[in-house]
Protein 1
Amino acid sequence: MPLVSVIIPVYKVEKYLNQCVDSIINQHLDDIEVILVDDGSPDNSPEICDDYAEKYDYIRVIHKENGGLSSARNTGIKSANGKFLMFMDSDDWWNPKVDVCNMFNYVKQHDDTQMFLFTSFDYLEGKGYYQRNEHRNFSDIDVGSVENYYRSLLNNGNMEVSACTKILDKQFVYSNKLFFSDGLLGEDNEWTIRVLRKLKKVDIINQPLYICRADRSDSITHTISKKNIEDLLKIVSNSLEYYSENSDNESIREMELCFASYLWFSALGLSNSLDKKALCEVKSLFWKTRSVCKYSRSKKTKLCNAVYRVLGFNLTVKVLGKYIDLKGKNDMNKTKVELK
């Protein structure tokens, strides 16, 4: 049984797929399997996948009808043989300056841990340089308990939701049915919430292994639609329902609602991108889930809630929308980094 199964959904990425897979091959790892899940890709990606599978016995290909990212990941999970799971997006790659073998040795030495978190760089597509992602405070994250870990992430203002910066025990995923929700945009947010409900032991590997191709104009996440907003508010609604229907670990449940309030205000700001008709249609969803605002207890959510209480719905949409735009521009000007 391999130590780690790396699951890579593949869809319309013929331009990037070689770089992704080669970044794993070039690590020369012995204790690994790579599962390429062709999600009905209409380009040459399936053929590229098959070529890799023919050359390397630790690479497998699963061809399936198109079902979306969550469906492809779930297919990979169900086929995985490794003790641990990792995920990659097929337009991203692993940092060649990071020794993955050393990371895996650490995992072996702490194999009772359910989840390891590691760091990442953003690669600015079209600009040709790297930037540190929002992972600057890992030394401040307390992993002594899941409650402390959760609280540290909330206080840092970044919940580190990406599935691609995690190593997870497969049995932990299976026994708690931590599969990804089909058809949901922002699926990593919803998945992370469910992971944190069940997590008992977490650790950090402070290595920038993952390189995310940022600001890709042809990415499916590049534009905001009404469904983006609806799905974020669906996650919020589910958290409110979970809180009211469960009595276990109130501390975790309240931190979940703090995170849900962050998603609520994120959706509010992102709604500034919608036209008037679409904004009017989602307004009732905000109203139905507005009770989550009273759980705004992190620095960011407290400030957002104060703005909302003073300015009301329409003006807060505009203010938070402008903030998101400015933050995006500032992110593009973050300090350049060398791979290391």
Protein 2
Amino acid sequence: MGLRIHIKEQVFILKFGLRGEHAWFYPCGEPGAVKELLFEILEEDREAVFYYMREQDAASLEREFPGRFLIRECEEDSEYLYDRRQQQELTGKKFSGQRNHINRIKADYELSVEELDEHNLQDALKVNQCWERRSSQETGLKDERAGGVLLENREALGVLGVLVRVDGRPYAIAAGYPLCEDLFDLAMVKQVECLTGLSVYTRNRLIRLLPESYKWINAEEDLGVEGLRTMKKQMKPAGLLKMYAAYGCSSSD
């Protein structure tokens, strides 16, 4: 995504290279510091566009800079939210497809599940490397070492994960980290090769592992990638964390 982080006292912001030289994430931090940073950026970059804004961010921007921006919902940036209990139990008609996928993979292969730790980390990294090699041959956004960085820094990030072996071979991983006390970020679900039902099974096993304090799962955005959007919708989200973008009224839409 071409991200570069800029850190100041009590606030930080990301430059969003994927969407051009004037693209930024909306800053995060103490409200006064956010306001000051926005003024600084707009003095240097009159064409600045801000992405990944929550509703309260959009309201704050409009309040501080009335009439300066055209604010629109950005569907590809909105994050999918899931009820943890529903995703764990998969009961009811709307989850029948996921249950069928799990039953099929369990019938076709011998599966074993391990919580991610220092003993199986290298196997997990190998699964990720296989996925990266396969992904590099496909069209669309590339995963530039993000999965490896997540796994290698799992302790600092508080990562929880599972490794699934298929017929004894390390084959799939799922991992994520806490965003707050009741919200868990599902950051990655990857496999060596596509086996029908394996990603559903691996994801479900991770969710079952989570402490009961997590009530919600954030599966992040789909980035406008059709395959990701289809998969995230098939998981039956409980809602969306809507994101907005702010375009300068003098810039092109």
